[in-house]
Amino acid sequence: MGRGRFVGRGRGAVVVAAAVATVLTLAGCTGTDPADVAVTPTATGFGGQAPVDGSRNGIETVDGATALRDVLRAVRSEAVVATGTVTELVPDPDARQGSGDTVPGRTVRFTYRGVPDDSSLQLSVGGVTLDARRTGDDVYVRGNAAFAERTGLDGATKGRVCVPAGSSALRTFAPFTEPDDLLRAVLGSDGDVTLHPGAVQGSGEDARAQIVVANGSSPVGALEVSAVGEPVPYALSAADGTGSVTMAFRSWGADLGLADPDDVVDDC
Length: 268
Hints:
By secondary structure, the chain is of the alpha+beta class. It is built from 5 helices and 12 strands.
């Protein structure tokens, strides 16, 4: 593989590059850079400062770096169900050469439940599927033949194989193994990516602040977070010249009732 991520043309080509790079690592790489695509948030409020009463957390008044730090910390504080997709864009093979037209390429789909040291993850990309159950420093994984071939865990096609949380087999699938790592990869991986907390919508416990994701002055996505209590995220949508990311978060702080690892063929 000649490079780890798309470079893209023009603005807006860095926001999802880190996540799309994982798609390329897992499923093979493509060549030509796609043209840019942009997402326009429903509310902007670049640099806006909204008055805060005592019932809100004030996330809409802080700078982008502080907002990112507070959101990432909140993500790790409670159990959550996070689902999402990351899709790369590739040149349209049917378009005129040099037109810059793109079509969706490979897609990562994932569902995460739990907290960092007690979680489950189901992930698919291309022909690779992974089911991981983490308990403390141990992760019980199983997958299909493509997963076994990529990781060298031959027993994983027969049942769960226990590996350390920091094993190379799991690092292959970073940053999808934890939601805050994926958010950091998307929102904090490049100095050109800036966050602009904006207006609060809704009221009471349902009040949400929209944080605009931008590259320079160009909005390329939006992160919706709680404006009350911990600034936990509820939705992320971003797209640029490398592809697109969508994430949804629910069941914050719920008892998810994760079962013990089943069908273990190789214990720790």
